[in-house]
């Protein structure tokens, strides 16, 4: 998560405007789903259903496999997940170890 930037107290109008623009841009960036993401590394998957703790402490918005160490098809079953604020449910067609970006 992007932290707020401290403002410099100044009577300089141009510097104040620049600070306003920077604050506005950072606020917009904070609203993007990927600004609050994490990469889960070396996640072992078995054939079939897998329950993964996503560590976000909020409802999962999405996920992307960023590294896959075996040939496998992977899809989620999040629509039936009773704990979407804690876990990601993935189905794998083969045993694999993956890195997953969760956001």
Give a brief outline of the structure.
This protein is α+β, with helices and mostly antiparallel strands and 103 residues long. 17% of the residues lie in helices and 35% in strands.
Describe the structure.
There is one protein chain. The protein is 17% helix and 35% strand. By secondary structure, it is α+β, with helices and mostly antiparallel strands. It folds into two domains: 1-31; 36-102, no CATH class. A three-stranded antiparallel sheet has the order 1-6-3, with no helix packed on it. The chain has a three-stranded antiparallel sheet with strand order 2-5-4, with no helix packed on it. The radius of gyration is 19 Å and the shape is elongated. The N and C termini lie close together (11 Å). The mean pLDDT is 91.
Features:
single chain, 103 residues, alpha+beta
Q: SSE order, as H and E? A: HEEEEEE
What profile does the largest beta sheet have? 3 strands, antiparallel
Number of strands: 6
- Give the termini separation: 11 Å
Q: Tell me what portion of residues adopts beta-strand conformation.
A: 25-35%
Estimated radius of gyration: 19 Å
Mean pLDDT rating:
91
Q: What level of helicity do the residues show?
A: 10-25%
């Amino acid at each position: 998560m992007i932290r707020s930037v401290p403002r410099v107290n100044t009577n300089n109008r141009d510097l104040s405007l620049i600070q306003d623009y920077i604050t506005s841009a950072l606020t917009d960036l904070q609203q993007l789903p990927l600004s609050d993401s994490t990469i889960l590394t070396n996640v072992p998957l078995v054939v079939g259903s897998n329950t993964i703790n996503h560590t976000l402490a909020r409802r999962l918005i999405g996920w992307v496999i960023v590294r896959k160490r075996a040939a496998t098809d992977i899809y989620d079953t999040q629509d039936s997940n009773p704990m979407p604020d804690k876990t990601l449910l993935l189905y794998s067609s083969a045993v694999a170890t993956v890195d997953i970006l969760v956001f």
